[in-house]
Specification:
36% strand, alpha/beta, single chain
């Protein structure tokens, strides 16, 4: 049993470690929504493949640069999970042009990605002028016409 167990461990380690060595930890870094309205919550998204995401995260703002730092550290991973988006909330901002800077593993293995985003003025909060009474009446008439058509078909067949 111990031979099978050691072979299984060796197989898992030989498959998972080389798969992560040459591939980047993350890709597709983006800001959503972009452009955003003033005060609207902004989120930095990064697509992680493997076991890297989930470390210690910090967010700081200096002028127009919003920095998100992800410290993953040394992680041992067996079979990596499928790629998934990891969201980092940035908050709401005043109108202007900003840069979201994503830093992974600060230090010798530092990877930095800058993503520009724009925050515009306040959103138009006035809706389209719709009278709910007319909309409900139109829906009721449409339902009555459909019901009448189906009832006539039943009685005509008999």
């Amino acid at each position: 049993m111990s031979i099978m167990r050691s072979l299984a461990i060796a197989l898992i380690l030989s498959v998972s470690i080389p798969a992560q060595a040459g591939t980047p930890l993350y890709d597709n870094v983006r800001v959503s929504p972009n452009p955003a309205f003033s005060g609207q919550p902004v989120v930095l998204l990064a697509r992680w493949g493997g076991c890297g995401a989930g470390g210690v995260t910090s967010t700081s703002v200096a002028g127009t640069v919003v920095t998100v730092t992800e410290i993953t550290g040394d992680q041992i991973c067996g079979v990596p999970p499928p790629p998934a988006d990891v969201a980092y909330p940035l908050g709401g901002f005043a109108p202007g042009n900003y840069i979201a800077r994503y830093i992974v593993d600060p230090g010798s293995t530092q990877q930095v990605t800058d993503v520009p985003f724009v925050v515009t003025g306040a959103a138009n909060t006035t809706g389209l002028p719709v009278n709910a009474n007319y909309a409900l009446a139109g829906l009721a008439v449409a339902l009555l016409l459909l019901a009448r058509r189906n009832l006539l078909r039943r009685f005509v067949r008999r």
